[in-house]
Amino acid sequence: MAINKIVQSMADAMSGIKDGSTVLVAGFGAVGQPNQLIDALTEQGATDLTVVCNNAGTGRKGLAGLMAAGRVRKIICSFPRSAGSVVFEELQAAGKLELELVAQGTMAERMRAGGAGIPAFYTATAYGTYIGEGKEVREFKGRKYIMEEAIKAEVALIEAWQADRWGNLRYRTSARNFNPVMATAADLTICQTQHIVELGALGPDDIHTPGIYVDRMIHVPYGDPPPAMKNES
User: Would you say the pTM of this structure is higher than 0.85?
Assistant: First the structure.
């Protein structure tokens, strides 16, 4: 049977995501963020989620909309407050959202370690600060480091520029950001892609995420509405 990871509806893309899941959400701000997948997750209804992302969303749509709908219990991110991040501030002030603040490079390395099967690592970043409180400290060659545990998630939501049906992905310039590392660090990686290309159209050096890391893909052309949430098949 030919490998084809393309699904035809958002219902298929979101199938099986459970309450209590940890969900990696790619993107640096809005760049490379899988907004249609985030909206579909909101509609799918999974709750009590832990979300790992660069920032906590803006306005009341996308990631902020997922939080506003009461789906997120905890957020792990580097920039919880940014211009327009009203939902995060409202929920945290009301005691309805837990925050784990992580330095951006450390967050990326925690996911890379999770994808590589490395349970933890030591870093000097955040030693002696509020973020490092309560974490194991070791000294190497006269410098102190804190231990950070890997992040391994049940689900990753990512966005690509091009993909073939095997799940090989190519990202466009800065939209690459957290997408490749998140793809490796989840049990179920779901990708929205702006373009579907034929097998062989992506050269070996153009493939940023090999298809072995991708489980489901859905075609969401830039600027077009997403495929229906309801599976009409």
Answer: yes
Asked if 77 and 92 count as a contact pair (C-beta separation under 8 A), the reply is: no
pLDDT in tens, 29-65: 889 999 999 999 999 999 999 999 998 887 788 899 9
Going by C-alpha positions, the residue among 233, 232, 208, 216 that lies closest to residue 37 is 216
Query: Quick one: CA dihedral 185, 189, 190, 194, positive or negative?
Result: positive
Domains of the chain by range and CATH? 18-219 (3.40.1080.10)
> Nearest 5°: CA angle at 160, between 156 and 166?
85
Residue among 209, 203, 198, 167 at smallest CA distance from 26: 209
Q: ∠ CA 112-118-124 to the nearest 5 degrees?
A: 75
| Contact (CB, 8 A) for 194 and 123 | no
Q: Token pair of 13, please?
A: 């893309």
Q: Token digits for 170? A: 């190519």
Q: How many residues does the chain have?
A: 233
Assigned token pair, 87: 């939902």
pLDDT, tens digit, 9 for 90 and up, residues 65-101: 999 999 999 999 999 887 777 899 899 889 999 999 9
| Dihedral sign (CA 89, 179, 229, 73) | negative
Identify the sign of the CA torsion 83, 85, 90, 96. negative
> CA 100, 44, 93, 26 torsion: positive or negative?
positive
